[in-house]
């Protein structure tokens, strides 16, 4: 898979060299391009923003550098690529959408700043490839970079060959892309630590009782923290 990032803060993407995504790059499973949007400005001040038509607070990213960037990165209509636009008004990102993104050959992330990007940029990009505005959740970030990194990590860990143990993918919460339950609590050695003991059932060796305990824990946690998930399902 090929991943491209359009941003005025390319340094955010230094983090791609770390951990699992960094290993995927080093092994050639993915390759990445980080592009400073200002390289496609033409004025001496390398301006990327302007005041909003209609008035209001803040600044909007002007369309011209984005248009030049899209032309430079994307040739003709390309059904194998997606233009991912992190946005507080995007579709909510869920695991099912992550799985879908993992099937594409190329993702191009358009990382806005200020109050966002002139809406015509998405219309223009849509003449060449699928445009997908995505939100990480109902809270406000200052730009799209951190969201693009989060989406990248979620996608790359699903790519064949990236994770050593595929079972660890299939057993976790949300693995099927539907809702599901939250994960049960996990423990490792020592069995007693600072006066805190691992639940005895986990040391019992009774696989059936362990499974039942984990299920009960998952349901209880989901009811407490994510009642919205319970409402959708038949638990
Ligand atoms: C993403 C962004 C801004 C408009 C713009 C670009 N879950 C999320 N919250 N905020 C963002 C996001 C995602 N994905 C997000 C891209 C941009 C926020 N901003 C700042 C703040 C408020 N309204 C600019």
Molecular structure report:
The chain starts with a strand and ends with a helix. It is built from eight helices and nine strands. Helices cover 31% and strands 18% of the residues. It is an alpha/beta fold and 235 residues long. The chain folds into two domains: 2-156, SPOUT methyltransferase, trefoil knot domain (Alpha/beta knot), CATH 3.40.1280; 174-234, Orthogonal Bundle (Trp Operon Repressor, Chain A), CATH 1.10.1270. Strands 2-1-6-5-7 form a five-stranded parallel β-sheet. It has a two-stranded antiparallel sheet with strand order 3-4. The mean pLDDT is 94.
Straight-line distance between termini: 38 Å
**CATH first level of the largest domain: which class?**
Alpha Beta
The assigned structural class equals alpha/beta
pLDDT averaged residue by residue? 94
User: Bound small molecules, which ones?
Assistant: ligand JFB
The largest sheet is: 5 strands, parallel
Number of helices: 8
Kindly report the spatial arrangement of strands forming the biggest sheet: 2-1-6-5-7
């Amino acid at each position: 898979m090929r991943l491209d990032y359009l941003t005025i803060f390319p340094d955010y993407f230094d983090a791609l060299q770390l951990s699992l995504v960094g290993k995927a790059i080093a092994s050639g499973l993915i390759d990445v391009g980080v592009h400073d949007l200002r390289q496609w400005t033409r004025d001496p001040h390398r301006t990327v923003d302007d005041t909003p038509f209609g008035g209001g607070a803040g600044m909007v990213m002007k369309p011209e550098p984005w248009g030049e960037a899209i032309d430079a990165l994307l040739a003709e209509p390309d059904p194998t690529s997606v233009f991912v636009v992190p946005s507080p008004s995007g579709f909510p990102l869920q695991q099912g959408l992550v799985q879908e993104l993992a099937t594409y050959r190329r993702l191009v992330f358009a990382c806005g700043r200020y109050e966002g990007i002139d809406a015509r940029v998405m219309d223009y990009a849509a003449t060449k490839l699928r445009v997908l505005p995505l939100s990480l959740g109902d809270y406000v970030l200052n730009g799209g970079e951190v969201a693009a990194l989060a989406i990248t990590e979620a996608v790359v860990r699903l790519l064949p060959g990236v994770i050593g143990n595929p079972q660890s993918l299939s057993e976790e919460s949300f693995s099927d892309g539907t809702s599901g339950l939250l994960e049960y609590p996990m423990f490792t050695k020592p069995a007693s630590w600072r006066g805190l003991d691992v639940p005895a059932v986990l040391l019992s060796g009774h696989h059936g009782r362990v499974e039942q305990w984990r299920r009960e824990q998952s349901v209880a946690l989901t009811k407490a923290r994510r009642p919205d998930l319970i409402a959708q399902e038949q638990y």
